[in-house]
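Bug report (template v2)

What were you trying to do?
Predict the complex of my protein with zinc ion.

What happened?
Run completed; filing so the output is reviewed.

Input:
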Amino acid sequence: MDTTTPNPRTADSPEVKRYNRIQRWLSLSDTLIGFALLVVLLVTGWTGKLRDWSYLGARQHYFFAVFLYVLMFSIIAKALNSPLDFFGFRLEHRYHLSNQKLRSWLWDECKGWLLSVVLGTIMVELVYAIIRVAPQRWWIIAWAVFIGLFLLMAQLAPVVLMPIFYKFEPLANDSLRERLTRLGERAGTRVRGVYEWKLSEKSNKANAALTGLGSTRRIILADTLLQHYSDDEIEAVLAHELGHHVHKHILKAILTQVAVTFFGFWLINLVLRFVLAKEWFPALDPRLYDFANLPLIVLVATVLGIALMPAMNAISRHHERQADRYAWENTPAIGPFVTAMQKLAEQNLAEREPAKWIEFLFHSHPSIGKRVAAAEDWASKHRVEQPV
Ligand SMILES: [Zn+2]
């Protein structure tokens, strides 16, 4: 094929490009606002004021004061980010990707915020309790506790956390369930549950995922996908998700988290001690358990997260390529995989051919253009049948 002319099957429309560009600006602005809040709290010393008010409100009770601090911090952060969140809600409507009513969206925002306050409070209370008990080795203990909570959340996600926002039902389609059983038997793995994810109440986008740990491990398929895709196409998607399971991608992602957060807590301890010793921020007490230093902890974690994003995305894209290959090898033809990909791109307004640097930095999945090209390339080497 002549590569100088755009391929009509993969070229992105100006609308798709615009939508994705706005989405990127939105998440960049979101990050920058969060970043600015942390820096301002530290530089102006307002974090010290928040801490003093917390002690006052808690009548000098340390753990209650920590809670009040987290609560005030969450309220300020949410207030600053709400205009962008609302813009994001409107954006999805403008591009006909969402059919969620304002009330339902506001309710989701409330639930999401409450959940973040609850989980944030638990983690922050634990961290400062550990700092008080073991100021020298706090970061190793906090890391171990964090990993424990992380595993618990990974297990609870599909049965407790996700149902807060969406309904799930066991997949009712018998022919699809049979196909999955056959796929699982061929893979020599126990076939796990498949659930229909009622996404259509809120979104017009389609999605599928492998979630959960141990007994809660399951494949979830959006009803928006089940409604508009042929059984062959859904089988290709199921095979891809099963590929994640067979290749143990969730375990590998968790092990990556274990390593990254170990380094993260070590780094936080180092930076915290360095900054406190240098007295860069006069509002902070030199003692580690002064929770006014929380913005500094979050700042280090945020910077580390951003710095590692390209590497984490590269690992994820590698996993996606493995799952794709698994799907091609374990379904009768790659045609349905290719058409499913094309439909997904169209339905979700995904860029089929994003700029290389954008894919490298931000994308957890290879572009649809690359996935389709790889599938056709694989089929030309391994199959006699012609792809669609
Ligand atoms: Zn995947």
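What did the reviewer find?
Residues 240, 244, 320, 323 surround zinc ion (CB under 6 Å). Strands lie at 168-170, 193-197, 208-211, 218-222.
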